[in-house]
Amino acid sequence: MVLLPVNFPKFAATRMGRIIAIDYGTKRTGLAVTDETQTFAFGLTTLATHELSNYLRTYVAEHVIEGFVIGEPKTMANGPTNATVHVELFVKQLGKIFPGLPLYRMDERFTSKMASQSIIDSGIKKMGRRNKSMVDMVSATIILQSWIEKKNFK
Q: I need a surface site. Which of 30, 39, 108, 154 has the fewest CB within 10 A?
């Protein structure tokens, strides 16, 4: 029998830190986050890439985070793209800022197309679908949900 303090939440044993997904872009970056059980992915925000490091520092200071999933751009032949060098530089920077947190990679091929289709399917009007910030956030959510599914079915 385990004795817990009176104020210890009953669900605390099943709680974990959240995982943040990053759909990195040179202008804008989409972010998504898991729930505390790392079961579901939710869109978090899209922000200007130059604001990303400060945003992540603040978010990590306010929440329990267990790691990051970074979208990895690849060509159809599984090679690097023009964006790969920018993502690699960002990953090195992220590792220096948060040296104790693991960084996972997830193939991001087709996520923008999937995000655009998901936005269309949701019934958002044409003007709203042109919002590239929404596409970036939904792409990050797709990357994260794919990572969750891959992790759970290993």
A: 154
